[in-house]
Amino acid sequence: MESVTVASAEVLEESRANQESVEDAPVEIIPLGPGFAAEIRGVTLADVAADDAVYAAVRAAFEDHSVLLFRGQEVSGEGQLAFSRRFGPPETTKVGSLGTGTNFVILTTIGDDGKVVPEDHRYAMRNKANQLWHTDSSFKAVPALTSVLSARTIPDHGGETEFASTRLAFERLDPALHKKFENSFAWHHYGHSRAKVAEGLATPEELDALPPQCWRLVWRNPVNGRGALYIASHTYAIEGMERPAGEQLIEELTAAATAPGTTYEHKWKSGDVIMWDNRATMHRGRPWPGNEPRYMVRTTISATAADGVETMRPPKLQAAE
Ligand code: OGA
Ligand code: MN
């Protein structure tokens, strides 16, 4: 009897200690957007990388708010990667992207000669493709949990990044559609989004490396149980629907998810770092004058079973694995 009492007192003590360390973490959360997105104050990326309690608090904010902004950061590639790694395994950048083979994606319009590239240059066209509403890596065999983007060179005009909550979009739908969409599956292909910008923008090498992927239309967050539409400019078909009807549904869902007044548009300042939940948001870059340089660095973290990725696979594929 006595040992039971002692054990439970210890357990109580330990859980109190854990709670206190999380509560003591000086993480301030300031809401930014219409029902999602928040600025995190009081901690740096390095604090998150170094401290379990700070990570736990920021992770909880990420699950709740879907988009997190950190301002005034002194970011290095290594610092950004150490922060990102807290959230899971980093992606290795695919063939055809600047940064291939590393954990960094470089989004830039600055060419090798240090000058801004012309508007028909591949770098500039890549930025155009990012200006379509999308979620990152839905075209990969392992989709992304989060992307972390840091601004290194910001144009004087435009070049914002705009976010939409596909979680709130799902929740705005007629509840009668929830079950239907939750049991629907959609096909995603890198070539589909690139072809919208220019024929041949995706190279044969990229297309070879990135065969179409099929994912459930709703990603349910395992932490809070909230569902989100999982769609992107990469989505080209709905399983079991005629192609035109599927395309129309994808277009309608995208339009509803990104309706005016429902998005958060971020105007970048030097030192800003933003992370977003690719399971629960879409984003797009906004245009800027072609003669102004822009240089951004992204790290991307793969989704794992703990993030619900296994629930996204169609049943047949699940059985085959
Ligand atoms: C990205 C992206 C948009 C932008 O980094 O994944 O889509 O504004 N960026 O650069
Ligand atoms: Mn993107």
Short description:
With 321 residues, this protein is of the alpha+beta class.
Task: Provide tags for this entry.
34% helix, 11 helices, 3-stranded antiparallel beta sheet, binds N-oxalylglycine, disordered N terminus, Double-stranded beta-helix, binds manganese (II) ion, 321 residues, 7-stranded mixed beta sheet
Q: N-to-C SSE series?
A: HEEHHEHEHEEHHEHHEEEEHEEEEH
Count of β-strands: 15
Radius of gyration: 21 Å
CATH topology (fold) name: Double-stranded beta-helix
Spatial strand order of the main sheet: 1-2-3-13-5-15-4
Given this structure, which CATH class is correct?
Answer: Alpha Beta
Instruction: Estimate the helix proportion, in percent.
Output: 25-40%
Residue share in β-strands: 15-25%
Distance between the amino and carboxyl termini: 48 Å
**Mean of the pLDDT scores?**
92
Low-confidence stretches: 1-20
The major pleated sheet works out as: 7 strands, mixed
Shape: globular
CATH architecture: 4-Layer Sandwich
Bound ligands, named by name, code or SMILES: N-oxalylglycine, manganese (II) ion
Structural class: alpha+beta
CATH superfamily: Clavaminate synthase-like
The tally of helices reads 11
